[in-house]
Write a structure and sequence with these properties.
The chain is built from five helices and no strands. By secondary structure, the chain is mainly α. The mean pLDDT is 85.
């Protein structure tokens, strides 16, 4: 176990003279040198292979063309939720949107989490107002 005097302060590098941030290792630089000037030919060949029906080449090309899917904004009718009594209408609207294909089940789950947080905020505010009213009556 190292002695206490060998510990570095937080934020202090254990090897201040080490590799600079952002630098690449020798093997990466060597590969870049080998492929330099060949990128266009390699890309063209991968595209040709994909067009000929080569599955892995097709996947490679499509992965480069299409970015990974991120969250999308969704639009559907959700009733206004002002009290906990409005919750059944909101969940019914969510179920209807899923069953009609307007949104996916995972999107409904995400919206459901937001609805739950909103109901919790409404309930907390309601309890706060009730408690304040009761405390006001006691004085």
């Amino acid at each position: 176990m190292p002695s206490e005097d060998t510990h570095f302060e937080p934020g202090q590098s254990g090897n201040p003279a080490g590799r600079p941030r952002g630098s690449r290792n020798r093997s990466t630089l060597a590969l870049e040198a080998i492929f330099e000037g060949e990128a266009e030919a390699l890309s063209r060949r991968a595209i040709e292979m994909a067009l000929e029906g080569d599955g892995p080449a097709m996947k490679l090309c499509l992965d480069r063309l299409l970015s990974p899917r991120r969250d999308r904004s969704i639009t559907f009718d959700l009733p206004v939720i002002e009290t906990a009594a409005d919750l059944p209408r909101a969940t019914a609207a969510l179920l209807q949107a899923v069953s009609s294909g307007e949104i996916t089940p995972s999107e409904a789950a995400d919206v459901g989490k937001a609805v739950s947080a909103h109901i919790e905020a409404i309930t907390t505010a309601d309890l706060h107002h009730r408690l304040a009213a009761l405390e006001g009556q006691g004085t």
